[in-house]
Design goal:
With about 70 residues, the protein is mainly α. Helices cover about 55% and strands about 0% of the residues. The radius of gyration is 14 Å and the shape is globular. It starts with a helix and ends in an 8-residue tail after the last helix. The model has no long low-confidence stretch (mean pLDDT about 90).
Length: about 70
């Protein structure tokens, strides 16, 4: 189950809760859905298959970029 990038990403997002990140989690969940299902009514085509490892890699990059420790270099 965890080898499927879509399922892995969705599961991680499911466990992320809190007032500081709820909006980000909702945004990422919507993006994940659109990447794999598209939205023909709004002209959005699917860009990834659910087993594409790029889904997980892109999610990790987005997570790190959003929640980077700004004091890490100090």
């Amino acid at each position: 189950m965890m080898q499927n990038a879509y399922t892995r990403t969705a599961l991680v997002l499911l466990f992320m809760r809190g007032p500081a990140i709820n909006d980000w989690v909702l945004q990422q969940t919507e993006r994940l859905y659109l990447k794999c299902n598209g939205d023909l009514m709004n002209g959005i085509v699917l860009t990834y298959q659910t087993d594409n490892k790029r889904l997980w890699i892109k999610f990790r990059c987005d997570f790190r970029r959003t929640f980077v420790d700004t004091a890490l270099e100090q």
